[in-house]
Every structure is written in structure tokens, then in C-alpha cells.
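Discussion board: Methods & Data

I've been asked by a reviewer to show the raw model output for two of the constructs in my manuscript, not just the figures. I'm not sure how much to include, so I'm pasting the format here to get opinions. Each protein appears as its amino acid sequence followed by a line of C-alpha cells. Is this the kind of thing reviewers expect to see in a supplement, or should I convert it first? Here is construct A:
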Amino acid sequence: MSAESPDNVLFVVMDTVRKDRLTPYGYDRPTTPTLDAFAEEATVFEQAVAPAPWTLPVHASLFTGMYPSQHGADQENPYLEGATTLAETLSDAGYDTACYSSNAWITPYTHLTDGFDDQDNFFEVMPGDFLSGPLARAWKTMNDNDALRAIADKLVSLGNTAHEYFAGGEGADSKTPAVVDRTMEFLDDSDRAFAFINLMDAHLPYHPPEEFAREFAPGVDSTEVCQNSKEYNSGARDIDDEEWEDIRSLYDAEIAHIDDQLGRLFDWLRSEDKWDDTMVVVCADHGELHGEHDLYGHEFCLYDPLVNVPLLVKHPDLEAERRADQVELVDLYHTVLDALDVEGGTPAAAGETAVPLDRTRSLLSESYREFGRVDDDARDPGQRDDGADAFIEYSRPVVELKQLEEKAADAGITLPEDSRFYSRMRAARRTDAKYVRIDRIADEAYRLDSDPDETDNVAGEGDPEVEATEAALADFESAVGGAWTDALDDDVTDDTVEEMDDEAQERLRDLGYLE
């Protein structure tokens, strides 16, 4: 790699990929030979922490440098508003920018793609011309009316679920090869570029390409195993050990396919003499649970398999080594600005918030996480301590909760109101301890150094490391407006449909949402 700063940044998010299923992190199955080779010339971070356990708030944090409670994009408000994005800042600085993804949360509908010069979500269920004509008016009506935002949210989620099946199951192929092709075309036409891609293969449901299914899940019929996490989490469906093994094998096959396509992209960069001039970031936005803590998927908790994510970064200022210090994905916003020598901080529109480069949050800086160097009035909510803590936020997942209730009701099950399903959660995490504040059930705390599987809840037992982590969480909560201690109304029904005017209801019928 050249000694000078790179001209390009390739930022890869492997959606829903657990760290412990990757070869560079010690997995004993050869799921990721490309990443294993990449790790020989990259920094491998052992303790990278996501700011949330699901896609939308994590990507909004990556694109703004803000924590979820700052940017406000979550399931109860699934739109990034009032913030200047990384793509807008880099475009203004003269970089070509592109975003390619098959995830419905990363689309113009949620404003996460604002500022990208080129973008394609490869999203067949909600086509690219969705925001035109009468459908555009329907979408605007829904977004401009606070009472209808839950409906807009559900449309995106339902579309995403449908797309995941058609993109990965019988009758269609993974979109990852097309994402890689488009990325190569974009980088081939650009001299100074920021390319962001999200690869969805490892997200439920798991229908891997046959080549990888034969190697990692031989004899497993992906249509016969449980592919709906809400069925299991609600108690409507049981999964035995043999079926869990089949599910995990399909998951491995999906990850192997991602790795294979990354190999194709990396080989192309080398063949075109672009490798040395390209900073490469590979991470996951969150992980996945496969029965741990009696949960499936990535909802309703903040356990480490979801939030302690893989992160590998190649840059000339970083050594090819393994690092055990804790880092946050929110720091990648500043790392990219630093790598491309862009200060940021200039709003793209009046009234927007634009976060400037803070080198105490750049992985490339010698002052990384030395938050004492930041002026008090410039500190963000996570900079009130010595840099030892990472912070995670999880607002109530209204879409998943509604689906969970439906699965439970179909099976004659009533979900308890005082449960993790209806709870909001915030956590502070250090490499040795984690404290989770939960608004409907008892808090959770774990000594990660002695209990990495988080099986022994030690909240309230006086452990000094846990108490220090809880104190850091309290400072964070104070900075973002106070702790979530008041339980929200447990009613998540969509009664607001009746409040729509006739035109809005007609447009929803056009979308197939109403009969």
C-alpha cells in the first residue's frame, strides 16, 4: 500500500453477520477465505461495537456520526431527517459517491441514501419509480402526517421481508453479484470515490446459492427449516438441536457466498491497480441470535452476538495486526472523513446538523478516543468519560412487535406486557463489563471477561467494574435527554388507518396494503 492517503474508500457492510462465524475470528469452518487473506494486510478489531442491534439506526449512525437518539431514525420514526450525511459532505468535497444495497431500509424512502451521486437498492418489490405519480403523493401524505408514519414504516418492512425472500429463495438469485458488478463499474469510472455497499445474504430467510449450500449445508432443505424468527420468539414454533444446526449451516453458506463475492471485488481492485489507493472497511451492522438466550434473529435484546461485530480496516496508517481495544462503529464516520482529508461540519441545507471531523474518534489518529482533549461544549454524548465505554440504544421495534403479536395470537398465546418484547433498552459496554438498562423488566449486567456468553446477570450485586459501566451509562443517558424508565403504551395496533382521508386510503390500496 502506498504511503500517501488513499484516493478511494470502499465501505462494505455484511448485513447480519456474526463475528464468530468468520474465519479471521477463529471459526473452524472455512466460511471466509477472502477475509482470512484480507486480515493479513488489515487491522482486525476484536472489540467493535454497533450503536444498535439492527440496520436502520446503525446505518444512520455510520452516515451521520451520531448515536441513534441523536439522529432519531428508528422504527417509530424510520426516516433520517435534519442531518447532513457523510455522502453529502464527501460529494461537496469533490468525491464521487455511490451506495449499492438490496436492503429496503437503505433507500431514498428513509433518506439514508441522501447525498449519494449514484445509488441502486436492487429492490424489486418496491421499484425505483415508486416515488412517482400518485404513489409519490401517497408516500408524502404518509410521511407528512405523524399519525401515519407507522404505516409508512410497515410498508418498508413488509417490502423488505418480501424482497429478502425473492432475492434469496427459489425463483431468484442473490443480488450480491449485481452489487459487486455495479461497484466495479462505479470505481472504474472514478478517480476519487466513496463506495458504500450493503450485502444482505446472511439476513433471514436463508436460501443460499446451491454451490455454497452443497458445501456448508448438504442435504438441508431451506424451505423446511424455521425461517421466521417471530414464530420462534413468540412461542408458536419450537426448534430442536438438529434444526438449529441446519439453520446455522444455511447461515454459514450465505456468509461463504458473501466472502466469495468480496474476493471477486478485491481481485478486480488489484488487477486494476486500485487496491493500494483504496481504503477498505469491512464490518457487520449487527449480528444474529440462533437460539442463545432463547431468541432468534436480532430483536428484543442487546447481547454481544448482536452488538460485538466484526470490523477489518485496511489503511496505510494502520498496522496489519489484531487489536483488543474497544472501538465503536460510530467512529467510522470520522475515520472516513480523516482518511479522505475532509473536515466536514458544513450543513447541506439550512437547519440541518452536520458533524465535523473529530480526530479523537478517528481510527487513524494518534489521539483516538482521548476524549479529554475535546472541549466540553463540543463533546458528543459518548465522550463524557475516558473513552472506555461504547453505547448502544434500542428503541421499541414496533414492526417486529406487531408481527410477533400476530404469530402469538395465531397460536393462542398472549405475550406478557412486562417482557423484553415491549421494552426499550440502552447499554454501556466495556471489554470486561456491560450494563443494560431496560424499561419494563429488570436491568441486566454481565462480566464479559469471565462470562462472555452473558449467562450470569450480576446487576445490583456491587461488582465495581459493572458499577463503573452503569455510571457511564447514566452519564450518557443524561446527555441524550434522560433514561428510558417510563414504559411506553403496550398497544402497537395500527388504528390510525381509520384516520386517513379517502385519497390516502386509495393510494394504500394501490400499494396492496389495504383491501
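Construct B, same format:
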Amino acid sequence: MSKLDSKIPAGDISQKWSNHKAHLNLVAPNNRDRIEVIVVGTGLAGGSAAATLAELGYKVKAFCYQDSPRRAHSIAAQGGINAAKNYKGDNDSVYRLFYDTIKGGDYRAREANVHRLAEESANIIDQCVAQGVPFARDYGGYLDNRSFGGVQVSRTFYAKGQTGQQLLLGAYSAMNHQIGLGRIQMYNRHEMLDLVIVDGKARGIIARNLVTGEIERHSAHAVVIASGGYGNVYFLSTNAMGSNATAAWKIHKKGAFFANPCYVQIHPTCIPVHGANQSKLTLMSESLRNSGRIWVPKRIEDAIAIREGKKKATDIAEEDRDYYLERRYPAFGNLVPRDVASRAAKERCDAGFGIENNDTKEGVFLDFSTEIKKKGREVAYANGNHNPTDEEVTKLGKQWIEDKYGNLFQMYQKITDDNPYETPMKIYPAVHYTMGGIWVDYNLMSTIPGCYVLGEANFSDHGANRLGASALMQGLADGYFVLPYTIADYLSADIRTGKIPTDSPEFDQAEKAVKDQINSFINNKGNRSVDSFHKALGHIMWNKVGMARNAQGLSEAIQEIAELREEFHKNVFIPGTADELNPELEKALRVADFMELGQLMAMDALQRNESCGGHFREEYQTEEGEALRDDENFTFVGAWEYQGEDINREIMHKEELKYEFIELKARSYK
């Protein structure tokens, strides 16, 4: 019998969630303050969950490693949030959002969860407007929408190029209200380092105060993990440098299965790598693909001349430009899904047409000149000028672009010293979001009773590739509209339990394990920095578990990471002590987890003998170079069970994916 019970309700897809909610157990309002919930992570998923649970009357302890929840990496999701409101009248619907998300994820997501996400999407927008989130509005005052990759409708709500930040401020203000009422205890600059299980249930955490180094015990009746994704396994990614996988990996080692770790999203529009000493990459929002056209020169000699500085992008005539996404995918053009756009850019650069003068000659152009002319003429016409000069068109077009994307253009210019109004942006794919994560059932509970996982930290909604503007949607749906209902069903059995004591053998054992690991790092007599090991891991991951994978490279990666991990524990050097602010110690603890997770990612990619979404195996592709799925053998979620320090011993369990409401077929964006 499988150890995985997804608890998907019976019945028609459109009724599953409402029927399920109607039959969940409740905790009465007068009993809620008897129950404590720990929330780890205060980005959109954790912040919205903490605020909502506290507003319902539960006692909440919220933990973040930053100095404030406002620093959560959710702010970096610039482009927008999806919702099926059909404001543009272009025939959007809950079903179409559900279908686009399943298709975008290459038919490797769970139908019931995705439909629930689509249903709740409209509620999120209403909630955020009520909080005062300043969404963009059209001329008539209605909320505006724009398009994103992988869809043929406009359903993305946005606040200029800072949507994630504005949504996070909404959740943060809701949290602050509850902190002011004493319902949320906020623990800033604290990092969860282990989960405590008592009688088979998640009952607390061990946390380190990052300022003093003190190890603390915190108990609760349930633990919610909302700590984000694991993109920083690759060292270079669009994630904030502090983003890490420790909370998720610690619960994995305590019994939470880790699902689909090989599903990593490579985002097509990042500023290319400049040099070997770089430690972070910058994402240019996918919203720019609404207005920008992606191209490389048609002639290889032009690409070489651009790389060598002998020609500029503006020197290449229109007929000598290869708008390769428009050529290959005419129905969607520049708005194909991220995995498709990323592989297409890699294909052109591998063929020698890259335009960036870096070590790998990798980069393509994102050009706004066509949109500047088009919008400039439209604005001039609307202003009554039906015969504008070229100068007037350009000026008005640039103003339109600035109103729409101004802060993104400013950010690009500050980083590159190029003016994107005058010359095309240079972009190239980079590691961004992780679709894999902790396996959860329909109620968002992991395989550990009482341990729930939300947002990017779980695996549930995006299959093998996430559509743009869906991360914010999932985080807020989980936190505002799913977990508060489903966790009550579990907590209803705890109204007489009383406070969970922290002086139990289980807390003793967990605290000792944390202190032992910290002491082993502090007392290590090595001579290499943490970053040198992290970079070495990232190099293996990007080259062998990156945009394209093959059996030989993955087998090598598994072995190389195991050797690197051994060397890391022998030879890493941590300055300072354990009982102080010690960023190198923080990094060492996180990199130790990345090493183990990186090996599991390669193992998961090796067993999946197909290409789907963000997982592209070179052995499995069509004649046109598109991903070739194997639905007969791989229509399942691979959920891995920890079996001790040797990651090679992990056991994979399968959750078969049943498609009852959508037909399984090859993706086409042509």
C-alpha cells in the first residue's frame, strides 16, 4: 500500500473544494485561543497565513530570518498576480486558468489542487484591494490586466513593476495589526534548525537567534512551513542570497517526503552573468515580454561583431534579426511559457548566435523599439495628433513604456549602465523558481501529522513548470483561503490538549542534535570558505542538473556532489563563535542542506526518463527539439523518503496523477 494519501475529494472538479470545506471539522471561536500555531517564513504564504490564523483567534508564533517580514523574497516577484476575473472580456474563466496552469506545468500537476487555486484567484484580488494594494487601473478606473507567458488572455493584475512588494506590504500590515493585538508573537532574525515531533505529531521547532546565537525551544499544536524554494542550490540564481532550503530539508529529514526535486524553473529574462566573482543574478520581470521582442542576429558574423564591440544592436537591420520565438511559436510568440523560452535562448546561443561578451558568450536581446513606435503613434492619435513626426512618436512611446515599466528600466540601467529606452536589454535564462518541494495532501499537510507546508516550499500546484504570475497567486491562496480551513480540521482534536511542554525528551534530543552540528562546524580545522564550496556545488548543478540534463551528466553529478559534501565537512572553515552574530555559520548550515538536496535533485532527474517542463532530458526530445513526455510511465509525482545520511538510500514513492477533467496531450504553443 502506498504511504501517500492525497485526500483528494470525490465528485466533479468544480464542486470538490466547496464540498470538502462543508465537511471539515471546525474549532469554535471561544476555543481558538487555546491553540498555538508556529509559522516559519513570513513571505506571502507565511505572512498571509499568520495574519489570517491570528485574526481567527489562534495564538501564532511567526519566525523569519530577516530583520523584518518586509524583507521576504516575495517582494522580488515584480510582474503580477493571476486571477480569472475576465475584466478584459477576452473569454477568461476559472476553467481556462485551471487548464492553462495544468498545460503550462506540462501535465505533471494535481488537477484538484490547481482547480482550487483557479477558484480562489478572484477572492485574492478582492482581499488585496480591500487591504489597499495599489493595483494599476485603466482609464475608466477599473483594475487593469496584462498578459503573461503561456496564455492567450490578459489576466495578470499588477502594480507597476513592484507587485510582490505591494502584496507583501498588504499581508505585512495585516500581520502588524495582529501583532499589535498580541495574537502574533513575532520572532525576527530567528532561523528554524529542526522540527520537534512528539507522539508522531509536529509539536514545535528548535530555532537559533541569529543575533545572539542562542538556541531556543518553541512549542505549538501545529507547525506551518512557508520558507520558499531551493533555487540557491545553484549558487547563482535570482533568489535573494539568504534564501535557503533549511526549514524544508529539516522536516524532510524528520519524515516529510520531498516531491519532484528535479523540477526547477529557469527564467528566460535575467541579466546575463558578467564574471566569475558574481554572487547573485537579477531578474527582469516577465511582464517585459508583453512589450519587448526577443532576437539574435540572423548572421553569425553579426553576433561575433556585437560580442567583440565592433557593432551595436541598433546597427543590425530589421531584416537581419532573428525573432526566434515568433518564428518558432507563432501562436504565442514572445509569450511562450518560461521553460520553452529559456530552451530556445540556449539553443540559439549554443549555435553561436549569443550576443554577450562573457565567458560563455550567452545572451540575447529584449528589444522595445517596436512597442515604443506602436504606442507612441497610439498616444499621439489619442491626443489628436494624427500625423506625428518620428521624434514625437519616439518621445510619446518612451513615456508610455516608462509609465508601465519605469522602475524595471531604471534598475536595468543602474546595473548595466545601458539605457534600455535606446538600446535593447541583454538577457539570458537563470535559475529562478522551484516547482518541487515538500509533498502535501489536498489539505496542505505533509506526511508528518500537524506539519503543513505552503507556497513555494510545497510541490502542489505547478507541475513541471510554473506559469508567470502564479507564484503570488499560490502563496496568497494557500495562506488566506486554504490553510485556515484545512488546519482547523486537524486542530479540532487539540482544544483540550493544553500547552505543549518544551522540557520533554523530544525537545532535548532535537536541541542536542542542532548544537552538535553547530559545534562540529565551529571546531572544524579546515581552510576553505563556505562560499568556495557553495560555488563548486552550483557549478556541478548548473552544468549537469541545469537547463538540459542527460544520464551520464546526472550520474556524474550524484558522485561529484557526494565527494564535495565529504570534502566540505572535512575542510570548511568557520571563523568566530556559535554564541554571536555569525553569518558564515548561518551559511555553512544552509550549504550543508543544499549539498544533500542537490544530490537528491540529480537522483530524481536521473530516474525521470522523459522531458517535461523545466526537466529537459537530452535523450528525450522531438525532432524539433521540444520536450518529449512519456505519459505511460511517468504520469506521477515522485516523493522521496529520507533514509539516513547516505542520500543514495532515499526511497521514492509514487503518487499517480489521474487526469479526469483535462485530456493529456503534447503541449503546443505553435
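Answer (T.O., handling editor elsewhere):
This is acceptable in a supplement if you add a one-line summary per construct. For B, something like: The mean pLDDT is 97.
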